[in-house]
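Q: Entry one of two.
A:
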Amino acid sequence: MLKLTSTDMLKNKLIDGVIKEPLGGAHQDPVAMAATLKKQLLKDLKVLKDRNVDELVTERINKFCAMGVVIED
């Protein structure tokens, strides 16, 4: 009912993406999880550093302002 799964949160634009965990969860293989997280962070930073700061700030403000708004189909 709360729609707290990663799929629901992504669909509702509350999160930007989902990072897959190792089989059994991140706690089962923290080294692999750290490597996966590092890879994703470096990829995201590469994209973000080439973006205009003012546009990024505006997008972030708009994203947070839209949170909690309910649109019924």
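Q: Entry two of two.
A:
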Amino acid sequence: MIRTRICLYVLLLTPLAVYWQTIFHDYGQRNDYAYLRVAREEPGRLVKLTASHGRPLNGALLETSFGVTPDVSQLPWLRLATVLLLTLLALAVWRQLYQSGWTEIESAAIGLGLVLLPAAQVTAGWASAWPQALALLLGAAGFSAIETELERGGLKRYVAVLGGCMIYALATLIYQSNALFPVVLITAVLLARTGREPMSDIKWLGYHLGTLVTGLAAGYFLVQALFTNGVFRESARMQLETNPITKAGWFFWQPLPDALALFALRDDQGTGMVVFWGAVLVVLGLIALGFRPAAAATEPWWKRKWVWCLIILPFAAHAISLAASERSTAYRVLLPLSGLVLVLAVHALRAITTARGIKPLPHYLGLGFLATGAAWLAHQQAFQLIAEPQGHEWNLVQGAVLRSNFTHPTTVYCILPTIGDRSTERIYGDEFGSLSSDNAGVAGEMVKAALRERFGPKLPKGGSYTFTAGTEAPLPKAYDVVIDMRRLKLRKAL
């Protein structure tokens, strides 16, 4: 059908079009510079580092991929791999939701919206985040494996449940937060169920959530066994939350509003707060209007659905961060919760248009208009707040290295930037508009990466260097090479 082909082409081409400029811009993120060196010079260190956080497979994947990536100029291929994985995720979501009762266009809109969320923008912009995209795809694959055989019963059901559990465990060992992505699909399919299926909603939920919890637990206890046996050292980030009351307050103030704002960013300076909180209120109002028909319904099973979707499943979508003692406000752990909000918003739009007798065409045109706006915003934010500012930092370091003579012992000093020296107007945490070179260790890795890109694995004969960094400018002629990262602020208006 023409409609199917249009949806397919949109899902295939839009992520590439949105992130193309970000993918192939010349830059690295703070972790990328160290990973390029460590993967070659210290085999096994990345595995130990990520395993201490409960993600041993993440380290293995990073070490393998960065081990065959010679320098910063090759990082775009890892970012391209990330976007291709996100594209496959969008296609998988489209296929699953369409088979589960959503219309084809609504399914495509949700699939596309997922890969345009701020969490996906961060994933697409960080070369070291490609395993996180793989964890999302594994989560979707695990759900589909279970859902395909669940209603059929018999031995096939239990084989599918076992397979789904194993896939979830693998996703957990890569990136725990993204292993919760099946909650997005559970929410979407639950809303599409009509009540006439052979299996009741409660039993269906029991199978899906039970398998997900079992898979997460299997991954967790495997890692704990590795810690106990001394294979890896446990990080403090693996500690569990001891104050659930304050954690619940944190959830309602920080992650939940970030998710409800969908494509609008919260920034640390408050410059976009009107837009951010306006988006939160609009989405909340939209979901509330969509809930009204369910509140007025007489069927208790329909009301129970909304109890699950509005109260229980949002906590499930962020369960890893709620259980951990660390209170991360990063967008990179937010995709399951943001995806759930996206599903509720699209479903609410459908409920409103149906209740008011609006024909499907205006509804679909509205979804297309919103998707176009989200795509434009994702392109702008990913490039202007991730790729471009990180590129400015890399260019300053790379330029200084290219202009200098390293054929004899050379002293290098880096003047570290402060937040006020950044090249962006907006900043959020360590993701959007942030600095990499404000840390002396990262700045040193950037210099090493620039030297490796210019000279290869060894400096010229007779060449060596010492690196020093600080926030104060050195005395004149005290060092052979001075890299002044404070010059970033001169590029703010460019």
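A: Comment on entry two: Residues 386-491 form one domain. The first strand starts at residue 409 and ends at 415.
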